[in-house]
Structures are given as C-alpha cells and as structure tokens.
C-alpha cells in the first residue's frame, strides 16, 4: 500500500476543505482499503469521515426515513425506526457481507462505490430515494450511471439518503456464497411514487425492470409475475452465472420479494 496523508476532521466544513484540496473520502474502508491494498487505488490524502457526528443517525419524518451517510450497515439493520417504517431495508442491511463488514461499512460508502453487485443501490432505486450531498439533492433515477460510476462530481460528498416510506416493499437476494454480494438482488416497492422494481448484481449497474413494474402496478401479487421474462442482453456473465441464468432469476426473486 502506498503511503498517504490522513486527517479526521469533526465538521462537514473541514471535510469539504480537505476534499477540495484533493483528499479522498474514507468511510468504513471496506472497499477503499481493500482496493488500496491491491494497488487499485492510490490516494495521496485520505480524509476520514468517521469523526463527523452530523453524518450519522436515522430519523423518520414527513413520510421518509433519513439515514446519515456514515451510518453502518449494522446500525441500519438493528434500527427500530427502520424495522418499523421499511422492514425490507433493515432486512437488506442485515444481509450485507458478514458481521465485520456490517460493523464498518456505511450507506454512503456503498452508494459512492456503486459496486454492480452491491445491495443498497437496489433499495435506493427500488424506493425512489433521494441522495443528499454537500452540494445538492440527486434523485435515485439520476444517481447510478454505470459500472462503479455515479452522478457524484469529484470532491462531492454524500451526507445522507432519504427513503420514502412505501405501502409495501420486499427484498430478495441470490448471493455469492463467499462474499455474499448479490449474484442477483431484487427490491420491489409500492408507494406514492407507484410501483418500482430494482435489480442489482445482474447488470453493469442497478436498473429498473419496467415490464415487471407494469405487471405489479396492475396487480400487486406474485402471481402477476408468472410467465414474466427479462431479456439477457447486456446482463453479466461470469463464474457465478450466465446472463441467461441471471435473467431467469430476476422474475423469480421479484415474485418472492412481493411475497
Ligand atoms: C468481504 C466483503 C463482503 C461484502 N459483501 C457485501 C454485500 O453482500 N453486499 C454489499 O452491498 N456490499 C458488500 N460489501 C461492500 C461493503 O458494503 C462496503 O462497506 C461498501 O462497499 C463500501 O462502504 P465503506 O463505508 O466501507 O466505504 P469505503 O470503502 O470507505 O469507501 C468506498 C468509496 O466510496 C467513497 N466514499 C465513502 N464515503 C463517501 C461519502 N460519504 N461521499 C462520497 N464518497 C464517499 C470513498 O472515497 C471510496 O471511493 C462487502 C465488502 C467486503 C470486504
């Protein structure tokens, strides 16, 4: 690992100055430090966000659950507010990685990293959440751009995410046995913004399954997805499964998520 300068400010303003001076944000380190150890990332300066209390915490107000970017997966999974308002979100967080990863990894780090097999992107897109940064609010449909790519500008920091509380929601993941990342993960919801079906793990980045949404909007039931198919074009093929295999899994997991 290459040497780097390290700082741990206690205010958002000081983090912004460090980012503006070229530092890279360090959250739980579960993806960044792993990439640094492999030489895939070589930041000269790291600014640790764990000292900023304003970036942590969970609140429920105005029909939405707002979660601070530095809130760990374990805190989301254990939160009574999240379990009550959006149990599927707590369930999703409780199955990310393993206990060590859940106790270090954060919501903000997961979204900024935008791993194609990550779980949280499916909840953000599947609920029509809003990603708050130090500069603006970004709608879920505009946030994920491609493989490990988001709408974030250089030096832009995620501060929190607001998840609208749906009428119904569900999550199902077919996971890689070792890392537990999603080979395919499907988050479904029915709420004020209509029906949304978001798929992670299957493509270069999370996407919405329009045909499945249409079927569930007409009839919110697992039976509504009987015979539904998803095209394999552009889906991932790797040692975990072919594009055709993933395409076949999507409506099955969506039906299970509807329950
Ligand atoms: C063994 C293992 C298994 C895993 N299994 C899963 C799994 O099943 N499902 C899953 O979804 N994930 C899984 N992960 C990934 C895990 O969720 C990581 O926590 C997540 O990818 C990164 O979050 P972090 O807080 O650790 O961020 P870091 O690694 O600290 O940062 C990741 C990237 O985001 C940037 N960043 C961090 N915070 C911010 C912010 N607030 N604003 C802007 N940029 C920011 C960093 O600069 C870096 O580029 C696994 C990881 C490991 C090591």
Descriptors for this entry?
259 residues; Uridine Diphospho-n-acetylenolpyruvylglucosamine Reductase, domain 2; four-stranded antiparallel β-sheet; 11 helices; 14 strands; globular; binds flavin-adenine dinucleotide
Report on this structure.
Strands 4-5-10-6-7 form a five-stranded antiparallel beta sheet. The protein has a four-stranded antiparallel beta sheet with strand order 11-12-13-14, with helices on both faces. Strands 1-3-2 form a three-stranded parallel beta sheet, with helices on one face. The chain is built from eleven helices and 14 strands. About 35% of the residues lie in helices and about 25% in strands. Among the domains are: about 1-50, Uridine Diphospho-n-acetylenolpyruvylglucosamine Reductase, domain 2 (2-Layer Sandwich); about 170-259, 2-Layer Sandwich (Enolase-like, domain 1). It has helices at about 10-20, 30-35, 75-80, 80-85, 85-95, 100-105, 105-115, 120-125, 140-145, 210-220, 245-259, and strands at about 5, 25, 45-50, 60, 65-70, 130-135, 135-140, 145, 150, 160-165, 170-175, 180-190, 195-200, 205-210. With about 260 residues, it is α+β, with helices and mostly antiparallel strands. The N and C termini lie far apart (about 45 Å). Bound molecules: flavin-adenine dinucleotide. The site of flavin-adenine dinucleotide has 32 residues, from β2, α2, α6 and α7.
């Amino acid at each position: 690992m290459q040497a780097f300068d390290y700082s741990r400010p206690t205010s958002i303003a000081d983090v912004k100055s460090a980012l503006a001076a070229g530092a890279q944000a360090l959250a739980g380190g579960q993806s960044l430090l792993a990439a640094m150890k492999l030489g895939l990332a070589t930041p000269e300066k790291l600014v640790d966000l764990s000292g900023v209390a304003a970036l942590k915490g969970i609140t429920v107000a105005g029909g939405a659950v707002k979660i601070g970017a530095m809130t760990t997966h374990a805190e989301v999974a254990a939160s009574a507010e999240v379990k009550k308002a959006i149990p599927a979100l707590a369930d999703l967080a409780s199955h990310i990685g393993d206990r060590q990863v859940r106790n270090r990894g954060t919501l903000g780090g997961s979204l900024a990293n935008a791993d194609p097999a990550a779980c949280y992107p499916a909840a953000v897109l599947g609920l029509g959440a809003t990603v708050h940064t130090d500069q603006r609010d970004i709608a879920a449909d505009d946030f994920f751009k491609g493989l490990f790519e988001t709408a974030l500008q250089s030096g832009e920091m995620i501060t929190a995410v607001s998840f609208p509380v749906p009428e119904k929601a569900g999550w199902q993941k077919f996971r890689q046995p070792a890392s537990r990342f999603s080979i395919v993960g499907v988050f479904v919801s029915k709420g004020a913004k209509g029906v949304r079906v978001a798929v992670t793990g299957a493509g270069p980045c999370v996407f919405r399954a329009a045909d499945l949404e249409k079927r569930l909007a007409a009839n919110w039931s697992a039976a509504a997805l009987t015979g539904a198919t998803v095209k394999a074009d552009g889906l991932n093929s790797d040692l975990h499964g072919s594009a055709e295999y993933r395409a076949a899994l999507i409506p099955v997991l969506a039906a299970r998520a509807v329950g």
